[in-house]
Amino acid sequence: MSSSSIISNTGPRANGGAGVAESPASTAALKRLYSIAAVRDAALRTLPRPVFDFADGGAEDERTLRRNEQAFNDVAILPRPLNGAATRDLSLDLFGAKLAIPLGIAPTGLAGLFWPDGECAAARAAAAAGTFYCASHGSACTLEDIAATGTSPRWMQVFIYTDRGFTREMVDRASASGYGALVLTVDNQLLGNRERDIRNGFSIPPRFGVAGTLAAATKAAWLLRMRTRLPKLTFGNYLRPGETATVGALAGRMAALLDPGLSWADVDWLRTVWSGPLLLKGILHPGEATEAVARGIDGVSVSNHGGRQLDGAVASFDALPAVVAAVDGRIPVLIDGGVRRGSDIVQALALGASCCLIGRPQLWGLAVAGEDGVRHVLELYRKEIDRVMGLMGARSLSDLGPDCLSFVQATRLPHD
Q1: How far apart (Å, rounded) are the C-alpha atoms in residues 122 and 358?
Q2: pLDDT in tens, 271-319
Q3: Pick from 70, 62, 105, 61: which is nearest to 318 by CA?
Q4: 28: pLDDT confidence band, cut at 50, 70 and 90?
C-alpha cells in the first residue's frame, strides 16, 4: 500500500455474518445516537447486564476507569478562530500508511460476544473509516479469519507467554497473515480483579442463572442473533486445529500462560523474531518510554488497559506529557483510555500524541448495530474532531500543540 493514499475498505460489505442488512430504519435509529454516550446507553438497553458489564467495567473500585475520562476535564482548549480553518485535514502518516483520522481501534477480547463475527465486522468498519484495526489475542474470530476480510491496515496484539514457543507461533501466524504491526501488551502479566464480573457471575459462554435468564430474556434482539453462536463462542487463536476444548479450558490455558516475570529481555527477544513495526502497549512511566526507544521499539501506547488491570494507576491522559517528553519525537506515541469525545482526541494530539485508540466505544457500537454501529461510532468521532478543529482555527493536525491548550492544573504542564 502506498503511504500517499488514504486507505479504504477492500473487503466485502457485510454485517458480521448475522444476516442483517442495512435498512432505512436501522440507519435512522443510528442517527438518533448523536454521541458516544448515547451509543453506550443503547448498548446497555441491548445487552444482558453481565455482558454489558464485561465490556464496561474496570478493576476493583474503578478509580482508574473513572479518572481516564475525568482527566480530560483538567485541560481546556484555547481557540484561535481568526487563524481561519475553512477546511480541515485530519489525516496522518503512521507506520507507512496514511490514515484518514487520528483514531484507531484498540484490541478488545471477545468482540464476537457482542455481534456474530464481531472482530471481522469491526475490522471492516475501521477500514471503511480509513483507519487501522488491532486484533486482540483473545478474539472470537481467529487472526486468519480477520485477515481474510482483506481489510488494512491491521495490527495484531501479542503477549509474552511462559511458553515462548507459543508466543513465536502467534508472531509467525501474524506475519503469514499480513499483519502490518505487532502490539505487545505489557500490563496484563497478572489478571486484574474485575469485580463487576465477579458480582454478575460472568462466564463464557454466559450462564445467567434464574434472575439473569429472566433479565436476558428482555434482550430479544441480542439473543436472537447470538442464539447459535453462544454455545460455540471461544478464543479462536488458542484453539488448535481439530481441538474441541471448552472455552473454560482455553481461558484457563490463557491465564496459565501469562508470565509475571515479563522483562526487557523478553522484549529484546520479540524484537529479534518480528521485523515489522513493534509497539509496546501499557506504557505509563517515562523511564519505560525512554528504554523502549533505546531498545529499538517503533512506537508506544500510553495505556492502563482501560482501568481493567491496576486500579489506582495513573490515567492515560495524565501520563501522556511525561511519556511524550521522554520519547522526544523519536517514535510515535499513541494513547487509549477514556477517549469519549473528539475534543479528547484533539487535546491528546495537542499534548504530543500521534494517534488515539478506542476500545469500549467500538464494542458499544458493535452491540447496537454490528459493522454499521462501529462505522457510526468512528464517524461520530470524525465529525467531532473536524468541528473542534474548525472552531479552534486548526487547519491540520500539525497545527495542534501545547499552545492550543489552557492548563487548569500546573501538574498537567508538559515537561520542558
Answers
A1: 12
A2: 999 999 999 999 999 999 999 999 999 999 999 999 999 999 999 999 9
A3: 70
A4: confident
What is the three-class DSSP state of 368?
A: helix
E strands present in 87-237: 92-94, 97-99, 103-105, 133-135, 154-158, 181-185
CA distance 72 to 343: 9
The mean predicted confidence, pLDDT, of the chain is 89
Q: Could you count the other beta carbons within 10 Å of the beta carbon of residue 255?
A: 10
Q: Establish whether 137 is a catalytic residue.
A: no
Q: To which residue does cell 447496537 refer?
A: 368
Catalytically annotated residue among 137, 285, 305, 415:
305
User: Using 50, 70 and 90 to split pLDDT, how confident is the model at 213?
Assistant: low
Do 320 and 339 form a contact (C-beta atoms < 8 A)? no
What percentage of the chain has pLDDT greater than the value 90? 76
| Helix/strand/coil percentages in the chain, nearest 5 | 45, 10, 40
Phi, psi of 247 (to 5 degrees): -65, -30
CA angle 220, 226, 229 (to 5 degrees): 160
Q: Give this prediction's pTM.
A: 0.90
Cβ partners under 8 Å of residue 51, min gap 6: 113, 114, 202, 206, 222
Residue 2 has a pLDDT of: 34
Among 364, 370, 362, 374, smallest CA distance to 117 is for 370
* Cα–Cα dist 25/34, whole Å: 16
Using CB atoms within 10 A of its CB, is residue 359 exposed (0-12), middle (13-18) or buried (19+)? buried
Q: How far is CA 159 from CA 30, 33, 166, 220, in A?
A: 36, 36, 10, 36
Cα–Cα–Cα angle for 91, 96, 101, nearest 5°? 20
Q: How far is residue 319 CA from its own chain's centroid? A: 18
pLDDT at residue 232 above 90? no
Phi and psi angles of residue 168, each rounded to the nearest 5 degrees, phi first:
-60, -40
